[in-house]
């Protein structure tokens, strides 16, 4: 083969590889992606959001209960905020658990939903205690 034919052979090989790879790539795109341990599915995302809301409610409720200095602990606003964040986390976590079609490890976020339910309920208890204490003191 001469040097003059080398670019033409390279172009033909490239077109042949791309021509053969196109149907395989189309087949991969059509198949649904399986949820792995590292895939962020919608259920996992919403259970994470719910757990973070519940965790924020626990932190704010704890601060309000301890009557820390600052705006969060003064006047029962922190208690109400903890109640709201805990309620939102528990409701979203409950919806994730209710919508899950599979068990743990399936990608539906059921474990995170249960965690969000528990953490949201703890936030609501802390918020309720802080609200009762602020009404009794004031």
Question: Into which percentage range does the β-strand content fall?
Answer: under 5%
Low-confidence blocks of residues: 24-32, 69-73
The major pleated sheet works out as: none
Helix tally equals 4
Distance between the termini: 96 Å
Secondary structure tally: strands:
0
| Rg from alpha-carbon coordinates | 27 Å
Estimate nothing, just give the exact number of structural domains. Answer: 2
Structural class: mainly alpha
Shape: elongated
Keywords:
73% helix, 2 domains, mainly alpha, single chain, 4 helices, elongated, 138 residues
Describe the structure.
The chain has 138 residues and is mainly α. It has helices at 6-30, 42-66, 77-99, 110-137. Helix 2 runs parallel beside helix 4. It is elongated.
Brief digest:
The protein contains 4 helices and no strands. With 138 residues, it is mainly α.
Topology:
Elements: H1 6-30, H2 42-66, H3 77-99, H4 110-137
Helix pairs in contact: 2-3, 2-4, 3-4
């Amino acid at each position: 083969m001469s040097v003059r034919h080398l670019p033409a052979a390279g172009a033909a090989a490239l077109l042949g590889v791309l021509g053969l790879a196109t149907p395989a790539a189309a087949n991969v795109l059509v198949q649904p992606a399986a949820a792995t341990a590292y895939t962020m599915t919608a259920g996992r995302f919403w259970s994470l959001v719910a757990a973070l809301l519940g965790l924020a409610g626990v932190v704010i409720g704890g601060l309000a209960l301890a009557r820390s200095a600052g705006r969060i602990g003064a006047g029962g606003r922190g208690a109400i905020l903890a109640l709201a964040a805990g309620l939102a986390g528990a409701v979203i976590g409950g919806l994730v658990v209710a919508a899950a079609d599979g068990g743990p490890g399936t990608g539906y976020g059921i474990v995170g939903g249960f965690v969000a339910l528990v953490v949201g309920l703890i936030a609501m208890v802390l918020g309720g205690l802080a609200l009762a204490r602020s009404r009794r003191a004031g």
